[in-house]
Amino acid sequence: MAVDREQVLRSAAALLTRKSTATMDEVARAAGLSRATLHRHFAGRDALVRALESLGIAECEAALAAARTDEGPAAEAVRRLVRAMEPSAGLLAFLYTENQLFEGEEQNEGWARIDAALTELFRRGQESGEFRIDLTPVWLTEALYGLLASGAWAVAEGRVARNDFTHMIVELLLGGALRREEP
Known about the structure:
By secondary structure, the chain is mainly α. The chain contains nine helices and no strands. The chain has helices spanning about 5-20, 25-30, 35-40, 45-65, 75-85, 90-95, 110-125, 135-155, 165-175. Helix 1 crosses helix 2, helix 2 crosses helix 3 (about 35-40) and helix 5 packs antiparallel against helix 9. The longest helix is centred in the N-terminal third of the chain and has 23 residues, at about 45-65. The termini are far apart.
């Protein structure tokens, strides 16, 4: 029987999103595999996390493309982007906690591409007068990551309705990022 790698990764992501300390045995069970079969595909937890990272980067890049972040008002582009990223938010929440992915020379350059695209979106919003200029585009990018992760955790734990995910993230982020007229 052939193993569907993407299905295994999605099962692992779903489990690790709920329980980041899950063992490889638990991951194998969640994917419907033996530990030996899982190990043949992923030599250990680090290899599994790196494969999940690749999936997460691919999904973020697909969401960026689908959201057309260079079109229309920046605030609307942010709204489209959050909506496009929602299906991947659980995986991103897990990856957000994996510090080894973001440290040292082995950092995947995919994250730098995503950071650059998001930073450019916020910079464009500042230049058009939509967003506050006292918050750096880099900070707004980090805030978006944090809100996506927090939103995913809140939905997964049943504290927030899935249908409210996009609205709550966008309204909090943009409510704090919109330029206010000075009195």
